[in-house]
Amino acid sequence: MKRIFLLLLSASVASVSCSGGGSSSVGKPGTKGELIPREKTKSFVAERPFGMVAIPGGSFVAGQADVDFTDSPEKAPLKTVTVSSFFMDEAETTNAEYRVFINYVRDSIARTMLAEAAGEGGDGGGKGTGIGDYAYLAKKEENLTAYQEYLEGAGGRDGFDDTKKLDWKIPLHWNTSKYPDVEYAEVLESMYLPASSRVGSERLLDVSKLKYNYKWGDMNTALAENERGVNFLRSESIAIYPDTTVWVKDFHFAYNEPLFEQYFWHKAYKDYPVVGVTWDQARAYCNFRSKLKTDYNESLKRRKQRPIEFRLPTEMEWEYAARGGKQNATYPWGGPYLMDDRGCYLANFKPKRGDYMEDAKLGTYMYVAPVRKFKKNGFGLFDMAGNVSEWTESAYNNSSYGFSSTLNPSTKDKEDSKRSVRGGSWKDVGYMLMTGARDFESKDSARSYIGFRTVQDIPEAAVKVKRVTR
């Protein structure tokens, strides 16, 4: 009887939760000479970036279960896979958002050239009234820290020179009537096309100079060499301005010159998806978005933890998100039809041969549509079918669904020139809008019908999502 009582007692203290939760048995930090971490035990809360939605992790049947009219090798065989949680842009990256990237690179280049020309600085008043105001911050600071003095004597550190930080508080003047002095004018004018290359008297930036420099980690090299040192890093210098000629190159015998002239820069198209960007340019944008958040966190008096990097979604993450939480969903809205019960189209695509819009009353567009014009899917994502196709991180292979893992599957070959493109576009027929339909494009190609959206990982340890508002 005593033994039975002890067994019952031990069973009664066992947790009834699958998570095994309960009160901790460890003592206070640093007590009795035990090794006890002093870090705060507060649960991590994932901060939802503005314009993104949280996609909960889960498993689903990937591939194309519907009829394949083309019998092409791109058809994906059915396969059950599991995907972790992540944040995803609720809509495609817009022209306005990409122009923030363009303007940042433009300003960085201009400020760097001005800082070099300013030398030791001067008495410009600190408000951009003379080129001396644009000197590097280290040239204007009087009381350097010991670390800053060390770096100045050592010439900086590998990969980043702290002595050459730019002073972003000083305003730039792009209006020629506000140039503060001749030296400033000489630097700024070098950013523009020479007069001999201009059409009429219009001053245009030399966009070939707009290059974004960054570094990324090559995981394949790290695995091959079993180390994560200097050989792990790769440097990129990417010309980031979109190829606006795609509107003419993609359609040789069509009059698309107005879009070539206006689509990217005109304010009428600010809420339209950016197109004409290569896979490398989309990845550079992801790095810039990561840098933007990192710089903000480091500027705070009480610095936040380094943010998780933004990136392109893997092909399987994209398909999982497109299905909106519905198993065997033919389209992102679930059903097998391209119209709702009112007879309105549910996406922007080419409804009939030679007919790109059929009837404006049905909700279709001749070319690209503004983002968020069609209903969102079950995860809160817009335009996961039609409008513009979207770059994914994954290398493309006809058989990748067969050999890839069932846990967060992805093909990571950086050297492979083919990249998976998903979702179908404004110039595609309804078949390409299916959640299981696959397509690809060379990563160095830019098209008038390919854009992108970004994602950010959610740590498995995150307990909930914290909302971020304007």
Please write out the topology.
Blueprint: H1 2-12, E1 46-47, E2 52-55, E3 58-62, E4 79-83, E5 86-89, H2 95-118, H3 137-140, H4 146-154, H5 182-189, E6 211-217, H6 219-225, E7 233-239, H7 246-249, H8 257-262, H9 279-299, E8 310-311, H10 315-322, E9 389-395, H11 400-403, E10 418-422, E11 439-442, E12 450-451, E13 455-457, E14 465-466
Parallel strand pairs: 1-14, 9-12
Antiparallel strand pairs: 2-5, 3-4, 5-13, 6-7, 8-13, 9-10, 10-11
Biggest sheet, in brief?
4 strands, antiparallel
Name the poorly predicted regions. Answer: 1-17
CA gyration radius, whole angstroms:
27 Å
Provide the CATH superfamily of the domain at 58-94 and 240-470.
Answer: paralog of FGE (formylglycine-generating enzyme)
Structural class: alpha+beta
Helix-residue proportion: 10-25%
Count of β-strands: 14
Distance between the termini: 67 Å
CATH architecture of the domain at 58-94 and 240-470: Alpha-Beta Complex
- Integer average pLDDT: 84
CATH fold node name of the domain at 58-94 and 240-470: paralog of FGE (formylglycine-generating enzyme)
Specify the overall morphology. globular
What does this structure look like?
With 470 residues, the chain is an alpha+beta fold. The protein has a domain at 58-94 and 240-470: paralog of FGE (formylglycine-generating enzyme). The chain contains eleven helices and 14 strands. Helix 2 (95-118) packs across helix 5. 31% of the residues are buried. The model is unreliable at 1-17 (pLDDT under 50).
